[in-house]
Task: structure prediction
Amino acid sequence: MSTDLADAKHIPVLLEEVLAYLQVKEGGVYVDCTVGAGGHCYRIAEKVGSQGRVIGIDRDQEAIEVARKRLSRFLDRVELVRADFRDLRVVLDDKGVSKVDGFLFDLGVSSLQLDNAGRGFSYMHSGPLDMRMDQRLSVTAYDLVNQLPEDELARIIELYGEERWAKRIARQIALRRNRATIATTKDLVDIIKEAIPARARRRGPHPAKRTFQALRIAVNQELDAIPLGLQVAVRYLALGGRICVISFHSLEDRIVKRYFQELSRGAAVEPLPGLKMRMVTKKAIRPQELEAKVNPRARSARLRVIEKVEGF
Ligand SMILES: C[S@@+](CC[C@H](N)C(=O)[O-])C[C@H]1O[C@@H](n2cnc3c(N)ncnc32)[C@H](O)[C@@H]1O
Result:
């Protein structure tokens, strides 16, 4: 890994809010399911003290390496595991953890991933069309863009990108790949720009933002992982323990909100006997103006928190 990458900055989002809602206590057990560059984890590790335990999970090997470096002074209490949080149960069982005082899910991509052109996540830097968080995955964005049938591409871009021009973008991709394979993020950005009418491109975010989000979600099957991870977290949560989830777009937030609502109504799909959960945040917590100003990534962040009040 280059020194640049190891020194790359990812500013943790809603950091003070997460610490306050998690109510990190000395000697507690916490699981950061998306450790990334270790920003949130660092502060949690500080607060649990030397008698505490923090498990940091990420599916990206580079993130694990950066986090290991950043958290080097806390390796007496922090264990880092490369895994997908959809396999949270396996991770916790392997570590012999049966009760957890708090879970954090800070969903989506990190600045480390976005800013490294070679990972292919960014429409701002040209790189290979990759977008895999876990580089052991076999399907990349290149495969989807060059091989999926046009109507399937349109469906993904519309569903996961909430992109109103999805059909036009898929059409343009299909036309262009007939001539030559679409190899780079820049190639794709140019195609998207051609597909979206000029007047629509003048307003709102970057024209490629939604399509890139859609492909990233599809490559990493991001949305499926959320309920799977959350269900396990509820099961392993100690009484009085909390689950904090930060999401960055409406698709993620909708899944979290609905699941938390079901849990707090006692209507979750797989209820546990005697389980009672309390929604701590009635409305999602948004970043303060200052945070949104200094960290543009924070602008779309929403934090939701739930607590186990009864159960085993
Ligand atoms: C927004 S970043 C987390 C940043 C971190 N909280 C920090 O302060 O540095 C999200 C991280 O979650 C990881 N991730 C996303 N989905 C995951 C999943 N299903 N399982 C494990 N890690 C995941 C990504 O690889 C990325 O490193």
In short: The mean pLDDT is 94. The two ends are 44 Å apart (CA to CA).
